[in-house]
Specification:
- Pfam families: ECH_1 (PF00378).
- This is 1,4-dihydroxy-2-naphthoyl-CoA synthase.
- One of its GO terms (cellular component) is cytosol.
- Converts o-succinylbenzoyl-CoA (OSB-CoA) to 1,4-dihydroxy-2-naphthoyl-CoA (DHNA-CoA).
- The protein is of the alpha/beta class.
- The chain has 2 domains: 205 residues, 2-enoyl-CoA Hydratase, Chain A, domain 1 (Alpha-Beta Complex), CATH 3.90.226; 47 residues, Lyase 2-enoyl-coa Hydratase, Chain  A, domain 2.
- 44% of the residues lie in helices and 19% in strands.
- It has 10 helices and 14 strands.
- It has a 7-stranded mixed beta sheet with strand order 1-2-3-4-9-11-14, sandwiched between helices.
- β2 and β3 form a beta hairpin.
- The chain is globular and about 65 Å long.
- The termini are far apart.
- Bound molecules: o-succinylbenzoyl-N-coenzyme A.
- O-succinylbenzoyl-N-coenzyme A binds next to α2, β10 and α4.
Length: 274
């Protein structure tokens, strides 16, 4: 589908597109012939693009999607599933999509799933771990694990249950049924449903609203939403952000400057807040 936006390519890859427009990065799985199923290479490329998104200060919001309008992602490519994981060019079996899930969760910028067509299996989990999901009317959601001999007991189960509730999450996994966009909206699995032709525009508009907001406030909010669920690693992320803020203060700078100037630090002028 023709885009109305002037996306520029940030980096060339083999199995994904990585584009930029007006503060927004778009990472798009480009394997429409298999409904955007991912291989270890697809995932490695997405991880690399995510790292670039993290470091690039021009990028304030990230869209995750799939090319073709018929699928967001159909999960791991079953044709390369081997003994112990998905097998790439190096012949090593791996489940590197779990690293990508962690990265989506930890990157301190909002990640929005833009879902047209199938979001199934590991592809469904990818949209679940995104901060927001916007679905086209043709979107179809579901897990297939127990049908195809796999399961994702991590975010794919536990975080899904936080999103839609325990009973619904168990139904989704135990029955492997498929749900349409309105079902998904009703169970709180997606934020909004729009006609397919409006999907990109709506997603970009949501990103633009986000980009008008304070990046530090957004960062702290994302870490705070995650901290409750992520235990020690969630606290570590939130505490790291507190350290970042502290580094910005004159109080913290006095400590560093005193060390470099080989003098005793003078913290007496800094307020002791109630
Ligand atoms: C999406 C479905 C329902 C669409 O059906 P439809 O419209 O009838 O299209 P098809 O004719 O079936 O598909 C079109 C072409 O695309 C190929 N294809 C589709 N999905 C895949 C796939 N996942 N892998 C490889 N090829 C795929 C079809 O074969 C077809 O090709 P041609 O035209 O050549 O015949 C339907 O396609 C469907 O059910 N797909 C499979 C969905 C699925 O089971 N996905 C895998 C689920 N598992 C995971 O994703 C694993 C996730 C993971 O990595 C993981 C993470 C944590 C812990 C564990 C795991 C784990 O290993 O499970």
């Amino acid at each position: 589908m023709q885009s109305r936006y002037n996306w520029t390519t940030l980096k060339e890859y083999q199995e994904i597109l990585f584009q930029f427009y007006n503060g927004i990065a778009k990472i798009s799985i480009n394997r429409p012939h298999v409904h955007n199923a991912f291989t270890p290479r697809t995932v490695a490329e997405m991880i690399d693009a995510m790292n670039i998104c993290r470091d690039n200060a021009e990028i304030g919001a990230i869209i995750l999607t799939g090319e073709g309008g018929k699928a967001f992602c159909s999960g791991g490519d079953q044709s390369v599933r081997g003994h112990g994981g998905y097998i790439g060019e190096d012949t090593v079996p791996r489940l590197n999509v779990l690293d990508l899930q962690m990265q989506i969760r930890r990157i301190p910028k909002p990640v929005i799933a833009m879902v047209a067509g199938w979001a199934i299996g590991g592809g469904h989990v990818l949209h679940v771990v995104c901060d927001l999901s916007i679905a086209a009317e043709n979107a179809r959601f579901g897990q297939t694990g127990p049908k195809v001999g796999s399961f994702d007991g991590g975010f794919g189960a536990s975080y899904l249950a936080r999103v839609v509730g325990q009973k619904k999450a168990r139904e989704i996994w135990f029955l492997c049924d498929q749900y349409d966009a309105q079902d998904a909206l009703q169970m709180g699995l997606v934020n909004k449903v729009v006609p397919l032709v409006q999907l990109e525009q709506t997603t970009v508009e949501w990103c633009e609203k986000i980009l008008e907001k304070s990046p530090l406030a957004l960062r702290m909010l994302k870490a705070s939403f995650n901290a409750e669920l992520d235990g020690q690693s969630g606290i570590q992320q939130l505490a790291g952000d507190a350290t970042l803020l502290y580094y910005l203060s004159d109080e913290a700078k006095e400590g560093k400057n005193a060390f470099l100037e080989k003098r005793k630090p003078d913290f007496s002028k800094f307020p002791k807040f109630p």
